[in-house]
Request: fold
Amino acid sequence: MAKLGVNIDHVATLRQARGTKYPDPLSAALIAEKGGADQITVHLREDRRHIQDFDVRLLRKTVQTELNLEMALSKEIVTFALDIKPNLVTLVPEKRKELTTEGGLDVKKHRKALADLVPSFQKAGIRVSLFINPDVEDVILSHELKVDAIEIHTGAYAEQNRDEDRARELERIRMAAKKGKELDLWVAAGHGLHYTNTQAVTQIKEIVEFNIGHSIIARAVFVGLEQAVREMKALLS
Ligand code: PXP
Reply:
């Protein structure tokens, strides 16, 4: 059964919208773990629009499972991550104006920076994952960079409205996942996955971890967070 990383950024989005102390991402992490989350994922964005530095520091001390810190290739955040030492960092592209992470990391363009960065994390005992498009060439480049894991961006799949387009995107994910497994990489996937489009992706057995946020937090509004996580876990089994 694939692992579930629950992304709790949107709990912080709600808090930041009013500048209140609630809802608290830390409490969300503990409830998500109670519901069966195998990992807590947060994205510390350069503009700090949701998760704040103090959230990550508290989560580091409290999360019982694993802490996955999504982050851009920013010097300031790299220094922060090396200090905090999450179990895993997932390197993502970041644009200030985007609503959410659009597209995977341009591995080719950032090859040099990544070649320096990946070992510095690994030497600090932090596993490294690259958030990449479902592209076999990017999987090969990631492997050459000796990362521990890749996370395949499922956003393009999730955005399709027609069955044939969805099938085409799913096939791209399948090919990328297959190549990742062949190269002995830990293969995760995520972005835009919800309670009706996730099951098809779980058929790709090479994918051993899913990071899901928005749909779980949205469902939690109606059924509570623990139940929302439980339901998503059930879909992964
Ligand atoms: N994985 C990565 C690398 C992400 O950047 C995000 C969004 O922050 C997710 C997974 C979760 O995406 P969603 O909120 O659409 O489930």
The longest strand covers residues 127-132. The chain has eleven helices and eight strands.
